[in-house]
Amino acid sequence: MRFFGERSRRVEARAAMIALREEAAAVAGAPAGPGRHGALGGLLVRAGCLAQGIADAERGATPFDDAGPASDLALAAVAEIAAALWTSWRAGGRAPAPRLAGLERLAGATFPDCVELRRPEGFVLYGAYPESWAAAGSALAGQEPVVLGIRSIGTALAAMVAAGAGGPAPAGTVRPTGHPFRREVTFGPRLAAVVAAAGRERPVAVADEGPGLSGSSFAAVLAALEALGVPPKRVQLFPSHAGEPGPRATPDVRTRYARARRHVVPFEALFFGDHPLALGRLAEDVIGPAEEPPEDVSAGAWRRHVAGAPGGWPPSQGWRERRKLLIRAGGRRWLARFAGLGDAGAAALARARALAAAELAPAPVALRHGFLFSPWLADARPAGHARPARPLLLRTLRRYLSFVAAAFPAGPDDGASPAELLDMARQNAGDALGGEARAGLAGAERMVREVEARARPVAVDGKVDAWEWLVLPDGRVLKADALDHHCDHGLPGCQDALWDVAGCELAFDLAPDETRALTDAVRAAAPGAPPRVLPFYRVCRAAFEVGRWTLASEDPGIDERELARRRAAASRAVRGLERALAATHPG
Asked: How far is 190 from 206, CA to CA, in rounded Å?
């Protein structure tokens, strides 16, 4: 099954450097406090992305990673920002304004014209906080470790480990290559010499998020270090969690990973206490001081508060959901939802404000260091439970999708192409239905050229399940979780507004006249693909939902009731796919 997609963008390196310098000046001029700390975290994310792009460009087509003049300066600049962020954390956000001379030195480097920046998903999607890696790195304080980062996100994480250890900037970063479950790493001669010489006397620290399904990225670096003669006892790993690699890990990977010492400081250890920058205090200037510890409602735990007894709960995607916490402050509860560090969080805030101004979604009250705070609507109920009057629901769907189509245009490279959507549909439909899917897929294939010519990508909602719509006591219906599924880990990304029309059909079993009214409203609000190609989007959207819930059903360790919910959602998506395929090729 195919579900995930990768995001990257090409930028002019010099322009990105200039923007970084301007952002650094703004950070240095900001007043001390949570706002400046969060801005410094965003600066780290952007600088780490640029350093990753420069390192990838310097590597080019060579089969190895080595230190280079521009990537050395870029990594040193990231390390300087990381040190400032860690100093800010230890001072509760009240450290003196940082002086970031490394960016000035980087400005004098010779850059490639353009670089490809890969999204650091942990910072944007999964709530990976750089302070956790610095806190873990403090275990090596005074030992001057040689620090290596695994690109992409490992660029900034390595800098945070070095900051926590109080040592020099990272020695370099590496990009594992090859099959996703059988990665390989090769050090270039300069980096190999540095690591091999230092690794005989000092710790070698390796930073990344993960391990994931296979643990192959960490294992590839471990194998490369062993080939250089670095004693295994000197290798220290800095992953994002204390668990073992996932089910796709080979015995050799598991052996290598188990042999290395690991350092992890969980998010909760830093952000659930009484630290001035802890979650309960980040927005106290707006919501008041927290009255009790935050309650984690991530991974479907929010259902305890809004969905009644577990027997009536909707399915959860588990770890694929954003981190969410409830905070009681000022006599009421607030939702703190991870929206992403840096630019991602700022974009989510802007969208939340636009939707709230249109009375389509809850209003945000603050963005603090990646978390978006909004009132917890304790009296709201998901539409699947509250069952609002059909005319009211349909009016809400028309108004919401029309607003999104008109208000949030996107670029042609901000999402999967129609051809990529069709490839996904082929794979997922084939896995779910076998040869029975071929005729319907052929019907969708005939529409691809028109979709390519006429589609107008927008930042769609992307997740319009019945439980995502909140019915308030006064009868209003608001859209929850409406901010960033167009830029999450799923393949589609930004699509024509018909993508959400097809999603609403699946979620609410729309009748043909209801679908026509919704389609007409969306097309009246914004140009795009004509209604006659809606069957293409029906097939692709249903196939995507099949992949979404099939993969979620394969997660290890979920209880039987949750497994049943996810399998039921997958079966419902398969039935929707069968209907979509039959309608595309009715013969």
From this structure: 18
CB of 285 closer than 8 Å to CB of 325:
no
Secondary element (H or E) of residue 328: strand 324-329
- Share of the chain residues as helix, strand and coil, in percent rounded to the nearest 5: 50, 10, 35
Closest CA to 79 of 181, 156, 186, 178: 156
Q: Is 150 helix (H, G, I), strand (E, B) or coil?
A: strand
**Domains in the chain, ordered, with CATH?**
8-268 (no CATH), 293-375 (no CATH), 381-584 (3.90.1200.10)
Give the DSSP H or E segment for 157.
helix 154-165
Length of the chain: 587
- The tens place of each residue's pLDDT in the chain, 587 residues long, gives 999 998 899 999 999 999 999 999 999 999 999 999 999 999 999 999 999 999 999 998 788 999 788 999 999 999 999 999 999 999 999 999 998 999 999 988 888 899 999 999 999 999 999 999 999 999 999 999 999 999 999 999 999 999 999 989 999 999 999 988 899 999 999 999 999 999 889 999 999 998 988 999 999 999 999 999 999 999 999 999 999 998 889 999 999 999 999 999 999 999 998 899 999 999 999 999 999 999 999 999 999 998 777 888 999 999 899 999 999 999 999 999 999 999 999 999 999 999 999 999 999 999 999 999 999 999 999 988 888 899 999 999 999 999 999 999 999 889 999 999 999 999 999 999 998 888 889 999 999 999 999 999 999 999 999 999 999 999 999 999 999 999 999 999 999 999 999 999 999 999 999 999 999 999 999 999 999 999 999 999 999 999 999 999 998 889 999 999 999 999 999 999 999 999 987 54
- The Cα–Cα gap between 426 and 409 comes to 28
Query: Which helix (H) or strand (E) element contains residue 375?
Result: strand 371-375
Distance of CA 411 to the CA centre of its chain: 19
Q: Which two tokens stand for residue 30?
A: 């900001």
Q: Biggest alpha carbon distance in the chain?
A: 74
In this structure, how many other beta carbons lie within 10 angstroms of the beta carbon of residue 143?
Answer: 14
β-strand partners of 8: 118
Radius of gyration of the chain (CA): 24
Q: How far apart are CA 253 and CA 216, in angstroms?
A: 7
CA dihedral 139→143→149→155, nearest 10 degrees, is: 80
Backbone φ, ψ for residue 149 (5° rounding):
-115, 145
The amino acid at 265: V
Residues 6+ apart with CB under 8 A from 504: 397, 401, 464, 510, 518
Q: What letter represents residue 160's amino acid?
A: M
For 383, the 3-state DSSP assignment is helix
Cα–Cα distance between 208 and 156 in angstroms, integer?
Answer: 9
* CB-based contact 373:367 (threshold 8 Å): yes
Cis status of the peptide bond prior to 316, with omega within 30 of 0 = no
Cα distance between residue 68 and residue 58, in whole Å: 7
CB 399 within 8 A of CB 518: no
Tokens of 118: 């890969």
